[in-house]
Design brief:
This protein is α+β, with helices and mostly antiparallel strands. It is built from three helices and eight strands; from the N terminus they run H-E-E-E-H-E-E-E-E-H-E. The strands form three sheets. A four-stranded antiparallel beta sheet has the order 4-7-3-8. A two-stranded parallel ribbon has the order 1-2. Strand 5 and strand 6 form a beta hairpin. Helix 2 packs across helix 3. The protein starts with 10 loop residues before the first helix and ends in a 20-residue tail after the last strand.
Length: 154
């Protein structure tokens, strides 16, 4: 979050603000909800599909997981998802959601987060297994549980 932005009033507001910041960098708009009617494109806007990624990082010293997640957010991947009424939910560990022009760009962003983590930590970060899938509609299991991010608000 930029220094000149006032702090958001909630984690959900911060998540929406952070997603908009990343989308603005790419010059596009995105719909984080399953409902198309809730996200009608604005005139001249390009809508990006939503992708879901799951990954396994090989254990290393220092532990790359927190750095990787921070970098993934910078590249447009988020560890939370908004449901139809804008409730923010944390995704399962090592699962991310992001909106990209296509699957190639989504995979490239995931790999770029890994490479950036390697540079920061000065170690090899192995992504042993991963999958990136187009995620159009999602179902949240169980009772709604608000997101509890382990990441500090920037």
């Amino acid at each position: 979050m930029s220094a000149e932005s006032p702090p958001p009033t909630s984690l959900a507001a911060w998540a929406r603000q952070e997603q908009r910041r990343v989308f603005t960098l790419h010059g596009v708009e995105s719909c984080p909800r399953a409902s198309k009617s809730a996200c009608a494109p604005q005139s001249g806007a390009t809508m990006m599909p939503t992708f879901i990624a799951s990954y396994d990082l090989k254990e290393a010293r220092p532990d790359p997981h927190e750095h990787f997640l921070t970098n993934a957010i910078e590249y447009g991947w988020f560890p939370w998802i908004l449901d139809h009424d804008d409730t923010l939910f944390t995704l399962p560990n090592t699962t991310l959601e992001g909106s990209f022009v296509d699957q190639t760009q989504a995979v490239a962003a995931l790999n770029a987060a890994r490479i950036e983590t390697e540079k920061e930590l000065g170690i090899t970060v192995m992504m042993e297994k991963w999958i990136v899938s187009l995620g159009c509609v999602f179902v949240l299991r169980g009772s709604p549980r608000p997101c509890r991010s382990r990441h500090r608000l920037l």
